[in-house]
Amino acid sequence: DTEVTQTPKHLVMGMTNKKSLKCEQHMGHRAMYWYKQKAKKPPELMFVYSYEKLSINESVPSRFSPECPNSSLLNLHLHALQPEDSALYLCASSLGQGGGANVLTFGAGSRLTVL
Amino acid sequence: QKEVEQNSGPLSVPEGAIASLNCTYSDRGSQSFFWYRQYSGKSPELIMSIYSNGDKEDGRFTAQLNKASQYVSLLIRDSQPSDSATYLCALFSGGYNKLIFGAGTRLAVHP
Question: How far is A67 from A34, CA to CA, in rounded Å?
Fold first, then answer.
């Protein structure tokens, strides 16, 4: 299995809703990532988990809350989002976090629209 | 100065030509470099990784790394319309312990 699976593919939510994005991989990767990507921009790192522990939080607003229940799963909990949070949210995984181990495999992404 | 710089393009090449995509970087300590391809509306996919000075070939793709001059390039031979995409240059920053992406170069291959 060489895939990173993200659900849902599309999500529309209001500013008062609570929703979650899910990500799963079964490649034995020990680092997992959330990226946010706006149109015509490169992916922007949000969070990194390494061996199920939060390794990097790129000063992301608290309305985004990551969770790594185990080495194969990564969630992103969303609450009280703003319209400007509408974007493609990408999950990725890699063998490890450093150097040559940092070869990312991306999921297909979750397209989020905040009304 | 940005950590990783790429010309945003679009770079337009005719079918069958060689497309040359370039990337410069500022962190002399970087050791790991990557090229990702991203089709419109899709997620990035790894095309090449390169860690040593010189050339690395994989099919129609050749990555070139020159650490002294701090640039990395991607050559696509016999370009096809299906190569039309945005190409993201990235490096692993030991200082920041994360991958740093360039802004991406949009490539358009016309028949």
Answer: 11
| Neighbour count for residue A102 (Cβ, 10 Å) | 24
Q: B18-64: per-residue pLDDT in tens?
A: 999 999 999 888 889 999 999 999 999 999 999 999 999 999 999 99
Distance from CA of A113 to the nearest CA of B (A): 14
Distance CA A92, CA A32 (A): 6
* DSSP string across B49-81: EE-SSEEEEETTEEEEEETTTTEEEEEESS--G
Question: Which residue's entry shows tokens 């992406």?
Answer: B101
A100 and B49: CB-CB below 8 Å? yes
pLDDT tens-digit profile, chain A (115 residues): 669 999 999 999 999 999 999 999 999 999 999 999 999 999 999 999 999 999 999 999 999 999 999 999 999 999 999 999 999 999 999 998 877 778 999 999 999 999 9
Residues of B in contact with A102 (CB under 8 A): 32, 92, 98-99
- For A22, how many CA atoms within 13 A lie in the half-sphere containing its CB? 8
Which of the 8 DSSP states describes residue A46?
E
Whether residue B51 and residue A100 make contact (CB cut-off 8 A), yes or no, is: yes
Which residues in chain A are closer than 8 Å to B36, comparing Cβ atoms?
104
**A98 to chain B: closest CA residue:** B97
